[in-house]
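Students often ask why inverse folding is considered easier than folding. One informal answer: many sequences map to the same fold, so there is more than one right answer. In these notes we will look at a single instance of the problem. The structure comes first.
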Protein backbone atom coordinates (compact mmCIF):
# COMPACT_ATOMS: atom_id res chain seq x y z
CA UNK A 1 0.00 0.00 0.00
CA UNK A 2 1.35 3.41 -0.91
CA UNK A 3 0.68 6.62 0.96
CA UNK A 4 0.61 10.14 -0.34
CA UNK A 5 2.20 12.29 2.33
CA UNK A 6 1.07 15.85 2.60
CA UNK A 7 2.88 18.45 4.65
CA UNK A 8 0.14 18.33 7.25
CA UNK A 9 1.23 14.88 8.45
CA UNK A 10 4.97 15.12 7.85
CA UNK A 11 5.77 15.43 11.57
CA UNK A 12 4.19 12.02 12.17
CA UNK A 13 5.55 10.20 9.12
CA UNK A 14 8.84 10.30 7.29
CA UNK A 15 9.35 9.20 3.70
CA UNK A 16 12.77 7.56 3.31
CA UNK A 17 13.72 5.88 0.06
CA UNK A 18 10.08 5.70 -1.01
CA UNK A 19 8.93 3.99 2.20
CA UNK A 20 6.81 5.61 4.90
CA UNK A 21 8.04 5.40 8.47
CA UNK A 22 6.32 6.47 11.66
CA UNK A 23 8.11 9.42 13.31
CA UNK A 24 7.99 8.20 16.87
CA UNK A 25 9.66 11.27 18.44
CA UNK A 26 7.15 13.69 16.90
CA UNK A 27 4.29 11.52 18.07
CA UNK A 28 5.65 11.42 21.62
CA UNK A 29 6.06 15.21 21.64
CA UNK A 30 2.31 15.59 21.04
CA UNK A 31 1.76 14.22 24.53
CA UNK A 32 3.71 16.98 26.29
CA UNK A 33 1.57 18.86 28.78
CA UNK A 34 2.06 22.55 29.40
CA UNK A 35 4.95 22.94 31.85
CA UNK A 36 7.13 20.15 30.45
CA UNK A 37 9.95 21.55 28.35
CA UNK A 38 10.69 20.08 24.91
CA UNK A 39 14.28 19.32 25.97
CA UNK A 40 13.05 17.40 29.03
CA UNK A 41 10.75 15.24 26.98
CA UNK A 42 13.35 14.74 24.23
CA UNK A 43 15.71 13.38 26.87
CA UNK A 44 13.01 10.94 28.00
CA UNK A 45 12.35 9.95 24.38
CA UNK A 46 16.04 9.22 23.83
CA UNK A 47 16.85 7.67 27.21
CA UNK A 48 13.59 5.87 28.09
CA UNK A 49 11.14 5.46 25.21
CA UNK A 50 13.55 4.49 22.40
CA UNK A 51 15.35 1.81 24.46
CA UNK A 52 11.94 0.39 25.46
CA UNK A 53 10.87 0.23 21.82
CA UNK A 54 14.10 -1.44 20.78
CA UNK A 55 13.35 -4.16 23.33
CA UNK A 56 9.66 -4.43 22.40
CA UNK A 57 8.61 -2.89 19.04
CA UNK A 58 4.96 -3.77 19.79
CA UNK A 59 4.94 -0.79 22.17
CA UNK A 60 4.62 1.39 19.06
CA UNK A 61 1.02 0.17 18.68
CA UNK A 62 -0.80 3.00 20.42
CA UNK A 63 2.18 4.14 22.52
CA UNK A 64 0.00 6.86 24.07
CA UNK A 65 -1.84 4.08 25.89
CA UNK A 66 0.98 1.71 26.75
CA UNK A 67 4.18 3.68 27.05
CA UNK A 68 3.91 7.47 27.26
CA UNK A 69 3.58 9.06 30.67
CA UNK A 70 -0.01 10.13 31.27
CA UNK A 71 -0.09 10.49 35.04
CA UNK A 72 2.08 12.18 37.65
CA UNK A 73 3.44 8.91 39.03
CA UNK A 74 4.48 7.70 35.57
CA UNK A 75 6.11 11.05 34.76
CA UNK A 76 8.05 11.07 38.01
CA UNK A 77 9.32 7.52 37.42
CA UNK A 78 10.96 8.54 34.15
CA UNK A 79 12.37 11.86 35.31
CA UNK A 80 9.71 14.34 34.25
CA UNK A 81 8.14 16.87 36.61
CA UNK A 82 4.89 15.52 38.06
CA UNK A 83 3.05 18.85 38.49
CA UNK A 84 2.16 19.35 34.80
CA UNK A 85 0.65 15.86 34.72
CA UNK A 86 -1.31 16.51 37.91
CA UNK A 87 -2.65 19.71 36.34
CA UNK A 88 -3.51 17.82 33.16
CA UNK A 89 -5.53 15.20 35.05
CA UNK A 90 -7.26 17.87 37.18
CA UNK A 91 -8.24 19.86 34.09
CA UNK A 92 -9.56 16.76 32.37
CA UNK A 93 -11.58 15.75 35.40
CA UNK A 94 -13.11 19.21 35.72
CA UNK A 95 -13.99 19.25 32.01
CA UNK A 96 -15.61 15.84 32.21
CA UNK A 97 -17.54 16.72 35.34
CA UNK A 98 -19.26 14.11 37.37
CA UNK A 99 -20.47 10.96 35.72
CA UNK A 100 -21.55 7.57 36.96
CA UNK A 101 -19.96 4.42 35.65
CA UNK A 102 -22.70 1.79 35.32
CA UNK A 103 -22.36 -1.47 37.23
CA UNK A 104 -23.37 -3.46 34.16
CA UNK A 105 -22.20 -2.82 30.58
CA UNK A 106 -24.90 -1.79 28.10
CA UNK A 107 -26.58 -4.64 26.24
CA UNK A 108 -26.77 -4.60 22.47
CA UNK A 109 -30.28 -4.51 21.17
CA UNK A 110 -31.37 -6.77 18.38
CA UNK A 111 -31.91 -4.89 15.14
CA UNK A 112 -35.55 -5.01 14.15
CA UNK A 113 -36.50 -4.19 10.58
CA UNK A 114 -40.10 -4.01 9.50
CA UNK A 115 -41.25 -6.02 6.48
CA UNK A 116 -41.97 -2.79 4.65
CA UNK A 117 -38.44 -1.52 5.24
CA UNK A 118 -37.00 -4.83 4.11
CA UNK A 119 -39.04 -4.71 0.88
CA UNK A 120 -37.83 -1.13 0.32
CA UNK A 121 -34.17 -2.17 0.81
CA UNK A 122 -34.54 -5.16 -1.54
CA UNK A 123 -36.12 -2.91 -4.17
CA UNK A 124 -33.15 -0.50 -4.10
CA UNK A 125 -30.61 -3.32 -4.02
CA UNK A 126 -32.13 -4.76 -7.23
CA UNK A 127 -31.98 -1.30 -8.84
CA UNK A 128 -28.35 -0.89 -7.81
CA UNK A 129 -27.45 -4.31 -9.25
CA UNK A 130 -29.14 -3.41 -12.55
CA UNK A 131 -27.33 -0.08 -12.63
CA UNK A 132 -23.97 -1.77 -11.97
CA UNK A 133 -24.60 -4.42 -14.68
CA UNK A 134 -25.52 -1.72 -17.21
CA UNK A 135 -22.41 0.27 -16.31
CA UNK A 136 -20.19 -2.79 -16.77
CA UNK A 137 -21.80 -3.61 -20.14
CA UNK A 138 -21.21 -0.09 -21.41
CA UNK A 139 -17.48 -0.26 -20.68
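Output (designed amino acids):
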Amino acid sequence: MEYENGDEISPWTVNLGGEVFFNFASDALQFRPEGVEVDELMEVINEVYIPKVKGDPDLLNYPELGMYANFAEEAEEIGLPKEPYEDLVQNLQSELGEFDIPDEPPVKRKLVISKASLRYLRHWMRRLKRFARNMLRSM
